[in-house]
Write a structure and sequence with these properties.
The complex is a heterodimer of chains A (about 400) and B (about 190). Chain A is about 40% helix and about 20% strand. Chain A contains 12 helices and 16 strands. In chain A, the strands form 4 sheets. Chain A has a 6-stranded mixed sheet, sandwiched between helices. In chain A, strands 6-8-7-13 form a 4-stranded mixed sheet. The longest helix of chain A has 30 residues. In chain A, about 50% of the residues are buried. Chain B has a 7-stranded mixed sheet, with helices on both faces. Chain B is built from 6 helices and 7 strands, in the order E-H-E-E-E-E-H-E-H-H-H-H-E. Chain B is α/β, with parallel strands linked by helices and about 190 residues long. Classes of the chains: A alpha/beta (about 400), B alpha/beta (about 190). At the A-B interface, strand 2, strand 9 and helix 9 of A face helix 1 and strand 2 of B. Strand 9 of chain A pairs antiparallel with strand 2 of chain B, so a sheet runs across the interface.
Chain lengths: ~400, ~190
Amino acid sequence: MEDAKVNNKTGQTTLVALTGNEAVATAMRQINPDVVAAYPITPQTSLMQKFADFAAAGLVDTEIILVESEHSAMSACVGSAAAGVRTMTATSANGLALMWEIVYIAASSRLPIVMPVVNRALSGPINIHCDHSDTMGCRDSSWIQIYSENSQEAYDNTIQAIRIAEHANVLLPVMVTLDGFIISHSIESVHVYEDAKVKEFIGEYKPHNPLLDLNNPVTFGPLDLYDYYFEHKRQQSEAMKNSKRVIEDIGRLFGQTFGTVYDLIETYRLEDADECIVVLGSTAGTAKEVVDALRGQGRKVGLLKIRVFRPFPETEIIDALRGVKVVGVLDRSEGFSAVGGPVYQEIRAALCARHDISIVNYIYGLGGRDIGIADITKVFDELSAIRKAEKPITSRVDYVGVRE
Amino acid sequence: MADMTEIRWHGRGGQGVVTASKVVAEAALSAGKYIQAFPEYGPERMGAPIRSFTRIGEKPIRIHSQVTNPGIVVVLDPTLLGVVDLIEGLPDNGIFLMNTPKAPREIRTALNYSKGRVFTVNATQIALDKFGRNIPNTPMVGALVKASGVIALGHVIEDFKNRYAGKFKKEIVEGNIQAIETAYNEVTGE
């Protein structure tokens, strides 16, 4: 930030008051991508507006491409990334849905595009508020997905995403998500690091097989039938597997540089917990308050926050939940599988070998419906009742905060 | 969360409700506190009742739910009295502050808020006198500072100067600072 005081010893500024969108736009200013192609959609709009301000003020060298839709935005990103330059965009909900076709092509073409997604409920009915139906919908698109709890994490994750995406063992695009309005439009205290430190951390971009390297011609997007398509998919799945280690390494390096270590998951007071809530995004913060309050009453409760949902950190989750007896998985999207939300399904699959654990699902917060201390306390109370066999499990999938 | 203050701001679109919640949060941040400030987003139209929120804490603020039991309620528009439930969730030891020429006792009766403290200040008049526009947000910040003690007046004025001197004309910034100080001195409560 131009007006923030820099502490040169730690490479950190003093705390700055920023919305989540401003924090991510600030990360983008420091990343200084070569190309940004974007189309406005609430609640992403103020993010790109802030970044456009930076560009107008000459604080970045980015070529901003104004397009006529998100489909075009992602198409322009594919072209730019294939050409061999650092490329970013951002979107929300219906914008992501309109990109859909090209979202898959970006990943299949192994283009390290970084895209903040400001989570918003997919229509219809029309709703501008937060849930995870947009990003959960493309969990199988081969994009890495990193969920942020607050503005600080959204900022930090955006910086790390560049290095993750561009790593030679990965070369996959990365979505960094932040909860619409709850984080994107909420002012919080954010540590903004020194520009030079961020620049040094992400390093200079060295494109892999750029289209414009005329001495080494390559083809992007050719017809690929039963002769090689499968091999290309096989490589893609290997890249996603590789990314786990890379995300861990970069999270550690980030900690060494800026002070906060990031991992695939975050556990909170889970060591001796009997009951645990699994959650991602901003609700993790509220749930930590509940865990502290219940711990104060002597209850053995804990929290598992999934930071990286793709790749899915299965072994880490199995390990973290080793001693836990009842798990409540909170899903901020429905999934409409008729057997529970997407996070729940993954957790159940991960724990399928455990016969000594009960796993239940709570769908919450659709379309921005508030989830508060009382709601999360009630979930913990139910988990406790299940453990003590006071409450039989009548339904594995339940809803929090809805009028029935 | 005993070491956290939650403020709910009421007003109408165009009165600077969101800015008020932000100005207080920014000043608190400058004073070394942790902060959150967020408006309630719905249909946005000039004149519609809107709400905004500020959280100020001694420790990092992790909660991300709406503010349901604010310790302090600040009302920028007196015509909201009887239109929206202004004391919803306000505890018995809460602070209620309203922009109105009326006395605190009269507002207390109208609200049927028997416990807690009630403050009033004629912020509209102060805004018109000091910077010539009916935007009562900055005087209400000054009155809040006096009524709640949640942050020092000096911090608010210094932070306001630092943050807005480059963005607005000198006389606008000066007028707003005078409005903050005047409301700070004129607010009355019981």
